[in-house]
Amino acid sequence: MPTNVGQISRQRYDEIVAGDRELVAQIGRAMFTIGDHALEIEPMRPHGGSVPHSDDLFGVGTSLQIYADDIGLSLSTVLNYRFTSHRWPSDQRREGVSHKVHSILASVQDDAERFEAIDQPPVDDVTGLRRWTSNLAKKHVGRRPDRPGTVQEKVERIQDLAVDEDVAVAVTRDVLRRPAVAARLMDDTATRQAVTEAQKPEHRAETVRSLVTDDVTAAQVASDVLRRPEVAARVAADDTARRSVNRAQVDRSRQQADAFRRESPAGPAVRRIERTEEFVDLLGAFHRFVREASKAVPKMRDRSWSGDEREVLMSNIARTRATLDWMETAVSTGEVDMDEELARILRGE
Fold first, then answer.
1. Contact 141/108 with Cβ under 8 angstroms?
2. Which of 30, 120, 201, 302 is the most buried (most CB within 10 A)?
3. With contact defined as beta carbons under 8 Å apart, do 70 and 93 qualify?
4. pLDDT tens digits, residue range 170-222?
């Protein structure tokens, strides 16, 4: 047991509680007295018969309003005290049980059940003792307690407060930021399905991207979805995606060819053939250039070029000369890299 309660010692706290219990008992007796006096002024009317009796028909409210005003209470308070006194005759009232508990249990319709219940207090979850509190009395009569104790009671209280959608969204957002809570919710099939159905396409895409951060998973997912014709068609319509796929295909083909040349027994023969093909292709380029130039240059006799035409032709001649110099360097040294100036000329800048 803690040595202190709040800022005071346990001993001092027990002294305060003992004194205040007597005060509460006195207040309870005063409430019953007021209720008894209200009953004396206006007894409870019987119900039933050919005419449904009610307090309103007998002007009870008028006389008890005068009484309430004279003693400084509200009419509703006096009516509550009166009803409680009616439900609890003096010989059925219990010392040590507050007037509030008597008032709550007054809603039990059957007299025998009500009188029996007050002598059988439930176990208080807080102290472990059998006693009546207003919370326990409300639970007994089926009302929601002021201080929820069980999980279901807490859930019901939150649901009451979260009727407004904005409140519900804020509460859900906050609790889902707790990893353990989010994990347990995702174990519930109905919750998971509801979340999935509520997502917009962009939200679903974001969720998938967050799950495929590693290349292996991303490749597997892409392989699976691209087998669906409608998905493949929409991806192919995206220029960036299509270029990426084409580039990947070229890279893969090159990698496969390089691996074949390195690892296959036929690799050396293939490399020799490729070098022969490169030599033949290069000679073919020279022959085509010479042949086409031999046809085109004689036609230039007596040809008069405009300034723009001459500029274009001279630019292309410079590009051709630079290309031939580059090829000569490559043949002589095996170096095929080009400097920035050569690249600029070949781009026609």
1. yes
2. 30
3. no
4. 777 777 788 887 777 777 787 777 777 776 776 666 666 666 667 777 777 77
